[in-house]
Amino acid sequence: MCSSDENIQRIRSDSEGLILELKSTHPTSLEGRAGCETWSVDFSHDGSWFAWTVGHGIVLVVAWPPRYDRVKKVEITPESHQQDKTLKCGQTVWGLAFGPRPSKKQALEDKTASFRRESSRLVLATGLENGVIKIWDVATGQPQFDLKGHEGVPRELVFTPNGKLTLVSSSRDKTLRIWDLTLKGKKESQVLSGHKDWISCCSVSPDCSMIASVGRFDRMVCLWSLRSYTFIRNLKGNNLKTFYLLASCDFSPDGALLATAAFSGSGWWIDLWDPYTAEKLASLVDCCEMYGQNQISSLRFSLDGLHLAIVTEERALQLWELGQRGMVMQTKVDRTSNGLCCNFHPHGGVVATGTRDGHVRFWKVPRSMSSLSHLCRAAIRLSVSTQQVEALPLPQRILEFLTYRNIPEYSEAQPDLSTDEEL
């Protein structure tokens, strides 16, 4: 099915796992050349828009109203009031993000007048090769203003999940910056310094109290206060595995876990941390050590906190359940279209992955019913720190559950889930 935008080919797949692929059209002279990578993908908070970097300074913003029928096939039915947009940025785009992002309470109730007023002007932030962050009006597809201050590539952009137009950016200039987009005519930012090399990723906790950042080569996982703009702590690896490279990080939806992707001489793995105590709770070892030097490019928690999506250079997607099941899904080995980034649809059921050739794929992910115990834990941990939980007069087993100290170590071989039929 073809879009009205000539830059996109919409391709439906008969595969059980791959439900849709969007392929960008590049001039023949640029096909396969460096500069066409999809470095970042994002959904708007209501799921109606999807944006991705298609390379060569172009960002595509497309209407995303997928309709599932009873056999879970995808039909693209663009609505008349939504039109795909091509944003010509003039520079390679390394990161992008829709804003504002509502808090969980706002997303469920949407009764806050101030949030409705701000969300009526959906914006898209794009981080450019020259260090500039360009802000776009999604409704019109027109640029609004530029944020200047970074002296290196803004690799990751994140809007705070509180309904405000506050943007956090991490850069190769070794700094993070916090921008208030509502300050008209005043584009100054709060600067967080402390990393000794490139910052490859950052994430904001759901309660907007902390920022996590990982340095690509300085072996640092840093936590910062978003309230006082100060450094909190650096998370350390254990003696058995020393960080050589750090690639990505993400907070769980309740803020009680921080996932980081790291590399040592033995391979790549995922660590799960308690950001309040700096305790390492578990590691997903087999997810990448079995593939040797296979680099992790990105990781993201699902919106319900039940799954963790991992993108590697060999596989477009792996999906892990943070419980007894371990890995529940992985795509076939595909070295021709290396995975670079991923993001979940806010309504669940779909995860998008970007590839090195400027394309984006949408995968059907297992839908899980959250248990009552998980829902209670998520509600409690969204507003209660680990120290506050430990002060409660509760049985040890319940305390371990609430603080995620019962997550198993995934060090045993996982079943082979590499066929499309098992997706």
Automatic annotation (TrEMBL):
Q: In which pathway does it act?
A: Protein modification; protein ubiquitination
Q: What CDD domains does the entry give?
A: WD40
- Which InterPro entries does its entry note? SOCS_box, SOCS_box-like_dom_sf, WD40/YVTN_repeat-like_dom_sf, WD40_PAC1, WD40_repeat_CS, WD40_repeat_dom_sf, WD40_rpt, WSB_SOCS-box_domain
Under the heading Pfam families, the entry gives:
SOCS_box, WD40
Q: Which domain of life is it from?
A: Eukaryota
Keywords of the record, alphabetical order, are: Repeat, Ubl conjugation pathway, WD repeat
Q: Where is the SOCS box domain?
A: 371-408
Q: Provide the residue intervals of the WD repeats.
A: 147-181, 192-234, 344-373
Coiled-coil region = none
Q: What is this protein called?
A: SOCS box domain-containing protein
Q: What is the lineage of its organism?
A: Eukaryota, Metazoa, Chordata, Craniata, Vertebrata
